[in-house]
From TrEMBL:
<dbReference type="GO" id="GO:0005829">
    <property type="term" value="C:cytosol"/>
</dbReference>
<protein>
    <submittedName>
        <fullName>NAD(P)/FAD-dependent oxidoreductase</fullName>
    </submittedName>
</protein>
<dbReference type="Pfam" id="PF01593">
    <property type="entry name" value="Amino_oxidase"/>
</dbReference>
<feature type="domain" description="Amine oxidase">
    <location>
        <begin position="16"/>
        <end position="470"/>
    </location>
</feature>
<dbReference type="GO" id="GO:0016491">
    <property type="term" value="F:oxidoreductase activity"/>
</dbReference>
<dbReference type="GO" id="GO:0050660">
    <property type="term" value="F:flavin adenine dinucleotide binding"/>
</dbReference>
<dbReference type="GO" id="GO:0008767">
    <property type="term" value="F:UDP-galactopyranose mutase activity"/>
</dbReference>
<dbReference type="InterPro" id="IPR002937">
    <property type="entry name" value="Amino_oxidase"/>
</dbReference>
<dbReference type="InterPro" id="IPR036188">
    <property type="entry name" value="FAD/NAD-bd_sf"/>
</dbReference>
Length: 521
């Protein structure tokens, strides 16, 4: 009788967990069990449906510098075979459903009740919006920062000032970042900037602006490998949002013999100090279940993972885990007859006054809204009625704070009132709204984060436990980074390796390593 394949339990049915599951079923005889706490797959990359309208939780551009990730996505959901010309393909919405769209990317900053390019450019409009005095201070402080770098970079403020100068940091980074995280920038690790802003600087933004004036090549090349992530101009996008991708992946996992169980919250991981031996979980009806395992892949929040260990983790590890902080998130879908007309004409359907952006960073200090998505521009298929505008207003908060405790009606009224206050809508045009709360959306780079290596050393010593994904590694990964960590975990399981270091190297590009080394000299 042939030996039985190893039993693999995957905790979490988001991009990391489902990528691991599909890779295992494709590349080995292993039939994994995926345990997802929510009632749908995709994690924060899921799509929420409400009365025929679809909400992308957080906005997910399908773009990666990794050929493996891009090919993986396009194998699951290809671009439509027609129209063949790249220029016709851009922003084309085909009749077929299981397809990727090629979308134009535009994100802007809304500040002083005006729109600014993101990243900031020195266009005539930007200079007029800022005014001569601000421009002068931006130029002087950027020159000073270029000559006198802050070394070492102790916190996120140092990171931003070194790349943009003090005035530009104060104008476009400080307030928004503190709105996101709820703490001053000088309390946040510079690691966050290195992972989210990466190589972007004024110099690179200006170079990109110059290149954008030159004749464009083939718009069908979505890889844009020579372009910083913050500067990409187009991206792939599933016709019905990111959740469509992950539901298809779930279906392939189950067709290959794997199992995906929803509404299952992991309560305990038993271990013998060397390996995880058993996983217990509670289903949606409150019943407890358990199973032995040969390998465990976890994308559950690290704080919850450590708390679920039996026997308990060492006291110092538990102390670090309990001190990890998460930023939570509320998004309010707002359905409208139309937007309020803006002073400067913009492309789009005039009857809806549709702005061209996929999302807009709201810098205004007199409202709590942090970011605004225009779902019509991600994919028209997200909107049931093409004669309406479907927005996603995004609020950063802390579970249990005043925002989190607002009921849905009050939260919806707040979102519509703030959109009206900053002049983007008329409240009389609001048709409906829908509220979605997302706990632990953003792992924070403060609290006990500076001691995270103590957790990593202890979990890495459990030979058959692999931490993957954003919350699984307490790292602000994008979707493609999370997928890559999952692939590397599968590589290790199939090859018999217990080396976790390749997983922890994801999202730490060589350029960042160089900056980090320079900063610590």
């Amino acid at each position: 009788m042939p030996p039985q394949p190893p039993r693999v339990i995957i905790i979490g049915g988001g991009p990391a967990g489902l990528t691991a599951a599909l890779e295992l079923t494709r590349r080995s005889p292993i039939k994994p069990l995926v345990l997802e706490a929510l009632d749908d797959v995709g994690g924060i990359s899921r799509t929420v449906e409400y009365k025929g309208n679809r909400m992308d939780i957080g906005g997910h551009r399908f773009f990666s510098k990794s050929d493996w990730v891009m090919n993986w996505w396009r194998e699951i959901m290809p671009l439509p075979p027609s129209p063949p010309a790249p220029k016709e393909l851009l922003n084309h919405v085909p009749a077929a459903d299981r397809v990727m769209l090629l979308r134009s990317r535009l994100s802007r900053i809304f500040f002083l009740r005006k729109f600014f390019d993101y990243p900031i450019s020195l266009s005539a409009r930007t200079m007029a919006n800022l005014g001569l005095w601000r421009l002068l201070k931006i130029g002087v402080t950027y020159g000073w920062a270029s000559l006198f770098q802050r070394k070492p970079e102790r916190h996120l403020e140092d990171f931003f000032v070194n790349r943009f100068g003090r005035e530009l940091y104060r104008t476009f980074f400080k307030d928004y970042t503190e709105k996101v995280w709820g703490v001053p920038c000088d309390r946040i690790s510079p690691d966050w900037g290195a992972q989210r802003v990466k190589g972007l600087s004024i110099t690179r933004a200006l170079l990109h602006a110059v290149r954008s004036l030159l004749p464009k090549g083939d718009t069908g090349d979505v890889r844009q490998k020579k372009t910083d992530t913050s500067l990409i101009e187009r991206f792939l996008y599933p016709k019905y949002g990111p959740g469509q991708m992950w539901r298809i992946v779930r279906d392939e996992v189950t067709a290959n013999g794997g199992e995906v169980r929803l509404g299952c919250r992991v309560k305990q991981l038993r271990h013998d100090g060397k390996r995880v031996t058993h996983v217990e979980w509670e289903d949606a009806d409150g019943h407890l279940h358990g199973a032995g395992c040969d390998f465990a892949i976890s994308s559950m929040p690290v704080r919850e993972l450590v708390d679920a260990m039996n026997p308990a983790a060492p006291a110092t590890v538990g102390e670090v885990a309990n001190g990890l902080i998460y930023r939570d998130f509320i998004t309010v879908g707002v359905l409208l007859r139309k937007l309020r007309p803006q002073p400067a004409p913009t492309p789009g359907e005039r009857r809806l006054n549709l702005l061209p952006d996929t999302w807009i960073y709201i810098q205004e200090p007199d409202v709590r809204i942090g970011r605004l998505q225009i779902f019509n521009n991600w994919s028209p298929a997200l909107v049931r009625d093409p004669d309406t505008v479907w927005l996603g207003t995004e609020y950063f908060c802390q579970e249990g704070d005043d925002l989190w405790q607002l009921d849905d009606e009050a939260m919806g009224r707040l979102a519509t009132a703030e959109l009206a206050k900053i002049g983007l809508i008329d409240e009389a045009d609001v048709l409906d709204f829908h509220v979605v709360r997302v706990p632990k959306a953003y792992p924070a780079y403060f609290g006990t984060y500076d001691r995270f290596d103590e957790i990593r050393q202890w979990t890495d010593a459990l030979a058959n436990l692999f931490l993957v994904g954003r919350n699984g590694m307490h790292r602000y990964n994008n979707q493609d980074h999370s997928m890559t960590t999952a692939k590397l975990a599968v590589d290790a399981i199939i090859s018999g390796s217990t080396d976790k270091s390749p997983l922890w190297s994801v999202n730490l590009e060589a350029e960042y390593h160089e900056e980090k080394q320079d900063a610590t000299k």
